[in-house]
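job 3f2a | input accepted
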Amino acid sequence: MIIVTLAYLVTPSEVWLAPKNKKVGVGLLNGYGGQVKEHETIIQAALRETKEESRVEVSAKDLIHITTINIFRGDEHRFQCHIFLITRWGGEPQETEEMGIPEKFPRNKLPLARMLPGDSLWLPEVMIGRPIPQGGFVRYNKDMTRVIESHLPAAL
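job 3f2a | predicted structure (156 res):
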């Protein structure tokens, strides 16, 4: 299992998304993130990955940890994904080697058909401010094109 981060640049009404150029979900819209390196904390990884993939500057005080979702590829526990919202940053998101041209979308009207299928299970809740308790999971088929099972605990 790989520990990863996924951060979304948000304003009160919009979210920045960009198509992935590499790895899982190529061509699909996503937030910014990636693998936590051995010497990093989850926060440090979220800050580094966001800067590398979007070119914006972010401070740790502007990261809001929302939840952790476990991602399975078939029977393999592939990722423990720490999800963040970023409410303030410096600069304008840019295209990078990892991510394509960023676009802004209304937080209440996400382009879910252009995203990984499991995102539709939890991202709309996050974008409207509903908490998702820790410990949920999404299980994909082997090529990660279809959700075959999920459990996302309801907020208390």
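job 3f2a | The mean pLDDT is 94.
job 3f2a | closed
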